[in-house]
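Box 3.1 A note on notation
Throughout this textbook, protein chains are presented in two layers. The first layer is the amino acid sequence; the second is a token string describing backbone geometry. Keep the layers aligned when reading.
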Amino acid sequence: MKEMKMEEIKKKLKRSNVLIGMLTVQAIATGLQLLSKVILSKGTFVFALMAYRHVVATLCIAPFAFIWERDSLKKVTWSVFFWLFMIALTGIIMAMGLFYYGLRDTTATYATNFLNLIPIVTFIFSTVLRVEKLRLKTKAGKVKLIGAMLCLAGALTITLYKGKVFHISHHNKHQNSSKDHTNMVRGTIFLICSCMSYGCWFLIQAKVSKVFPYKYSSTFIICVIATIQSVVIGLCIDRRKVSWKVGLNLQLITIFYSGALATAATFCLISWAVARRGPTYPSMFNPLSLIFIAITEAAFLGEEISIGSLIGMFLIIVGLYSFLRAKSKELTVRIESDAVDAEASPPQNEGMHSINMEIPILARESAKFQSPIQTQEAKESNVSSKINKLTEK
């Protein structure tokens, strides 16, 4: 009986290990936002933080690139380098830099709300540029539109409506309200620009995935480029040694935490989850970090919680879940239809194969975390399943 119970426990743990991994990712994201908020409020220079963070990230990603994708580094042409340079510029310097400035002027909860709007912004950009189709005649298309509208309504509610304010802890903050209002307006502008930069970044990622499909090598090169870009732009803004100095304090802890855990460890956990459960699965957990951050920030940093922010958070979470569920169903339908078409059509040369640009951008970009080994295993399993079906027939 004991052995049977142990086997049942092991099976339950195997089933829930991906869930635990994604909860760990959200816990890491929560810690990152709170630590970043604290050190930025104390005057840490944004570009110094970004430069040091990506130095640590480069050192963590380098072993994966050199062990699994060593030969891919020889295939970096000037065209590939240009696109990787643009990814670093839009996805790190602009998107992450503007987010840090917005986080400095607002709160961690407020800033994280805008991170949850990135899938919606990417969807709008891809629809306007005709990379994706809206498909309003389908049920999934209608649900996507409703989800996007709910997210937009939530963002407007958080920005424009405050309502009754209350605190969880007694560690209340007493600051100048006019200064807070000015900072909130400026921070909101930074966060909106950050969301738009992230949307552009995802679209550029779609291009790079075609010309240079080596995920670890591309991440390694992007981190190196981002480090150089951060140093150059940072020195143009502030050359004081004090701004670039790092002491044995919370600032150093945040740098190693963001580089090792928030970049390298999260990369590995998401790649594992995508290989096990599919590309949309990790995105479904993103709203949890918003809840974690709101609770911990109110409890430990004394930030206020307003009725408007709670209503806005609820609308964003419901809208994002609706959007991602519809996106997942749409992707499943597209894959099934493509499989049927492939079986009906005559075989073609492998060199003629191309990526369908109508496949949802976020799902395809989430798949970038898959390692070559995992991808090869998936291909082998698909081939074996097809052989079994043929033998049964």
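The longest strand covers residues 165-166. Confidence is low (pLDDT under 50) at residues 174-179, 347-381, 389-393.
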